[in-house]
Amino acid sequence: MSLPHALLTALIEESGSGLDLARRFDQSLGFFWSATHQQIYRELARMEAAGWIRSQPAQTGRGRKKIWVVQPEGRKELRRWARLAQEPPVSRHPLLVRLWAEAVVGGTRVHEELQRLLTASRQRLATYRTIEAEHFSGLMSRDRQLRYLTLSAGIHQEQAWITWFEEALRTLAA
Amino acid sequence: MSLPHALLTALIEESGSGLDLARRFDQSLGFFWSATHQQIYRELARMEAAGWIRSQPAQTGRGRKKIWVVQPEGRKELRRWARLAQEPPVSRHPLLVRLWAEAVVGGTRVHEELQRLLTASRQRLATYRTIEAEHFSGLMSRDRQLRYLTLSAGIHQEQAWITWFEEALRTLAA
DNA sequence: ACAACCATGTAAGTAGTTACATGATTTA
DNA sequence: TAAATCATGTAACTACTTACATGGTTGT
Known about the structure:
The structure is a homodimer. Chain A is mainly alpha-helical. Chain A has helices spanning about 5-15, 20-25, 35-50, 70-80, 95-105, 110-135, 140-174, and strands at about 55, 65-70. Chain A is built from 7 helices and 2 strands. The mean pLDDT of chain A is about 95. The first copy, chain A, binds a DNA duplex through helix 3.
């Protein structure tokens, strides 16, 4: 599981509350990782129980904001995890099932869906390009280059999908 | 959820037992969808309860082979589902967290992991290319072209990852 | 008869999603 | 002071994974 380690990394970068983290995952980090606040709160509770993080101040109960700070044990755990081999996630894209169903039973109007997903991919790519131009242009430090790589991965993936969507639309049009 | 609809499509293509399906998902279908036999058996039971499929003959209990046949209700359900809009799955690749951790705490030896994943991607791509040459060469019928698209999606994805792995390795080497 | 394999299934646990509940703080 | 918003949390559910159990068939 990578979520707790994503949270540890985020908190080392900058301490914050559960909602702060949820917002960061919704915004800048969203292009390569996502998590809802429910998931985050549950995970933070587990991480506190494990002694990886501590809340500052140690308030309890609902509604009281907690700022989470990573403890030495948390850094140790992150270093341990970050050296393990991790398999790439299996991707199960419903569109591929739909395309297969089109081949088997037909009449699924998959053309429209391809067009819709192509538009969405182009928009995501445009967003990535904007972030790229604003935050990752010119000469970059090693640290900055490493951060850029996560964005670059998203760009490569979207580009691959866009090329494939176009190919698929040509196939269906023929 | 797409698994029951993937199973319906597979069974319309060719009726078979749960284990037959598991083997098909392990082999040819594996490059765009995967499911373990436990998942498949549970889903088949639900699909039978819904009246989408029926076993031929209607044997019960452990160890007795059941050949599943799609009922008219099942075809209807597949057609219904195949027209719904489906969002692409959010991809959470642990490697991106690791790369981010490398930027934040360092010392994660992510270089080795990138090399390992690059090799694995190259092997998968080679497998896809073999399937492509053996089953999808020359002029293809529309049906065949549609089936090729699922393989083509895998090829585009792997190529994108390979390009990105190489870029990431260059960045880390610098 | 018994080993190997084929085939179906149960149980327990992890991860993620959706819907809802509740307390605390800010602001009109 | 009431509404809006911030913030934390519970509950229930779905999908997937891992480990194990059990019956049936085939070959020696």
